[in-house]
Amino acid sequence: MQTIDNTIGRDVATTIARISVDPDRALAALTEIDDLHRANGSPNETPILWRLARQARPILSAHLPAAVAAVEAHSQPFGPCAVAIEGLAPTGSRLSPDAQRVLALALGSPLGSPFQYLQQNDGVLVPGLSPTPGVVANSGASPGPFAAHSDDAILPPHLRVRSIALFGVENETRVPTGYAPIEAILDRLDRPDRAILMTPDFAVRKPHSFDLDGGSWSAPLPLVFENAAGELCVQCPTYNTRPLGAAAARAFAGFRRAVDEALQWLVVGEGSYMVFRNDRGLHARPPIAGRRTVLRTYWRPDTASLQAATGQAGPVFDLRPLLAG
Question: What UniProt keywords apply to this chain's record, in alphabetical order (predicted)?
């Protein structure tokens, strides 16, 4: 079994793989995907978009094999913690908003199954996230800052989002997205504080975006733990975490400083695609000035555990039974 010490500094697992695609190959792929979407009546229904995305995956494999291979590597244990792909809006491309969703789903298809929570973003599988004036900070819809966090940290680990994918539609002022792999965070802490982070001496609060009885706190939990594959994982919204005791408070203060130092920043602009492990790092962004829209998709290897917990087929799941267990 790996320990918190001998995983520090893993080269591949803490890498953000960066791919820049050839514009001619990208245009060929996007043209075929647009034709596929149009040939099926330009649908916008979730089941049809996902079916078309699976049909579009061979198109991407044929034209953009390096991009597909990078996402496939990300899907494996100890694969790159994040992948950033540039160049998916070449001159001459003409994807409609729903065809862009097909592209986003096709790019993520090596990750397994897309899903969404019923109470988030009106239950839309691939929502377009744009700043909305008046929305509170630390929310995907807020124009204010979004401090470092992992999504759905209040859920049991076996029910959480594994990877989050962002497809850039517009980013007028090139607002960056930050990502910090958990190893890069822990590498900046001393052994005693790392050990405390792995003890159930913390609580996290239900996020505003769940649109339920906000403000309730979890049972005591560790912020850092090891999954069945031996990977280090993290569950922590830094703005919604409460240390339970003086030692935990000291460790958490150091953890927050380490997160700020470890964040790597990338711009998800028009035609950019970024996917990162939600369970193996924290992500953040500064305030948004100007227009910005990203298509976001949650991914898991499969949704069997969500189906078992909710009794629902998916891909949209009610949060209430998930929060119960």
Answer: Oxidoreductase
